[in-house]
Description:
Blueprint: H1 5-24, H2 36-54, H3 58-76, H4 88-98, H5 106-122, H6 125-131, H7 136-160
Helix pairs in contact: 1-3, 2-4, 2-5, 3-4, 3-7, 4-5, 4-7, 5-7, 6-7
Amino acid sequence: MNDPALPAAQAAAACVRRVARAIAGGGGLGRVPVAPGTAASAAALLAGAGLLTASPWALPVAALAATVLGAWAVTASGVTGDPGWVVIDEIAGQWLALLALPRPAPLWLLAAFALFRALDMAKPGPVGWADRRRGALWVMADDVIAGALAAVLLLALRMLRGM
């Protein structure tokens, strides 16, 4: 039986997968030849600094959107494991780390970047636990946890400094 709707459905599925891969790849940042995760985190840092100045809601909404859309994109793109070109997780994690900052002060931005990258690469405690899990959602989870831990550490540093 030859279903005439089948080619249209296949084309639609292919389109959805292309969109999902574009989101998962951070709009092309995942194709940076050296250290795509670090490149995506740096780009997220710059964009996040702008979001911090735009509105009190801009960065939280963007972080939530990157996390939710990222989870969908990683699932819908059909990736296995945690391929290096998938960097939406770094973007979401970096934006979560920046939520601890009231404004984009250069030294605090650098601290947010350094803490997030260190936690993401060293994978201590719950970050490593999430990283060892299998499945598309866990690709996002380790970076979301690293971003949340970085935010907690930044808040602690700010409290120690009386800020």
